Amino acid sequence: MHALEVNFDGLVGPTHNYAGLSYGNVASLNNAASFSNPQEAVLQGLEKMKAMHDKGLTQGVFAPHARPDLNVLRRLGFTGNDSQVIHKAFKADPILLRACYSASAMWTANAATVSPSPDTLDGKVHFTSANLNNKFHRSLEPATTTRLLKAMFNNDSYFAHHTHLPDQGFFGDEGAANHTRLCDSHGEQGLEMFVFGASAFNSQLPKPAKFPARQTLEASEAICRLHNLKESSQILLQQNPDVIDQGVFHNDVIAVGNANVLLCHQQAFLNQQDALQEIRDAYTGSKQLYIIEVPTDKVSISDAVSSYLFNSQLVSLDDGSMLLVAPQECQRNSAVNAYIEEMILADNPVNQVQFFDLRQSMQNGGGPACLRLRVALNEQELAAVNPEVILTDTKYTQLCDWAKRNYRDKLGASDFADSALLTESYQALDELTQLLNLGSVYDFQLEG
């Protein structure tokens, strides 16, 4: 059956801000305490979605989370009505409050791991929300993410949803940011690559020394079991610990795959040549597998991290070629831009590049690939998806209008003491759930 891969891009939330909350993410740390522009951020993301739609690709929309998270503030001892809780938290611990305002759910590559039906023993599409327990502000996301996924993929005949893994470090799971699928076509059985940073239980495996390894081997193994993956559809590889310590906090900062192409840096994996041979041996497709290995002497790790070359999207076009969807930072970096030009002229399916201004997201440490969750669907499965979360020309216009009416164009540290920001944010999301036909998915809706 014909199938395609749908990118569900995260809408940037109304409280998008720079708080430097993500230790190990260089861009996040470097831009801490800068003023943010939530309206510009959401419109930049929507522009990328519309561009993909205009190329004939099926493009989905993933709603943001409700922020600030008042429930967790109350669990931490702040009492009173909503306004009092915010003011008490701002006075006692402004960094904590900013974490509870974080719009990090915009990076839906971390929302979940998705296994398409050709790879699973029961023939269903499986979803497991990531627990994201390595960072406090992201650990607040899994329950809402699961509700959103169930509202989008709401037919039990085709979709299976799993509870996120236990909320502690042994099973640290960062979702699709450490998961890539290689295949001849999206409707055929593929090879799902699970990339982990360290093992929680096996002390013999190396681990980074400076920054944390956010994905554990044990978490990846658990996802394979939960998703009923065929043995021939799974491979587990370790990320190079040395590059984690240089700011490569997820595998999608050092490698990206699509269909029969894997684009990776020369230093992406532990024991790289053995890892690449393991991938070749495990790949069961009939088409040629292209592994494009970027040499360090052409693109350094530093350039890869600052430009987010590997956090670009690779998408398949109707003519069989592939498009690299890259941030403008790649174009501005002379070494990276030169390599992209060389790659496009080489003998591989990637023959186009399109650059996007995603500065608001990039400054917080997320590029094009961070902003999207990939879901391969056949025709019947796509027909079973909530149609209101699929982008159309009309939906794009509605969402841009919604954002311009509801989002501020500047947020700084003092704004988080303003309880009006909460009111504005919740009202915007209440309207959005109607626009996307999601029902009640946020705590403030369920408790109201």
Automatic annotation (TrEMBL):
PANTHER family in the record: N-SUCCINYLARGININE DIHYDROLASE
Cited Pfam families: AstB
Subunit structure: Homodimer.
Top EC group: hydrolase
Record GO terms (molecular function): N-succinylarginine dihydrolase activity
Organism, as annotated: Pseudoalteromonas carrageenovora IAM 12662
InterPro entries, per database record: AstB_sf, SuccinylArg_d-Hdrlase_AstB
Binding of substrate, residues: 19-28, 110, 137-138, 214, 252, 364
UniProt-listed Enzyme Commission number(s): 3.5.3.23
Active site: 174, 250, 370
Cited HAMAP family: AstB
Family listed: Belongs to the succinylarginine dihydrolase family.
Purpose: Catalyzes the hydrolysis of N(2)-succinylarginine into N(2)-succinylornithine, ammonia and CO(2).
Protein name per Swiss-Prot or TrEMBL: N-succinylarginine dihydrolase
This protein's UniProt keywords: Arginine metabolism, Hydrolase
Organism domain of life: Bacteria
Pathway membership, UniProt: Amino-acid degradation; L-arginine degradation via AST pathway; L-glutamate and succinate from L-arginine: step 2/5
Entry keyword Ion transport: no
GO annotation (BP), single: L-arginine catabolic process to L-glutamate
Catalytic activity: N(2)-succinyl-L-arginine + 2 H2O + 2 H(+) = N(2)-succinyl-L-ornithine + 2 NH4(+) + CO2
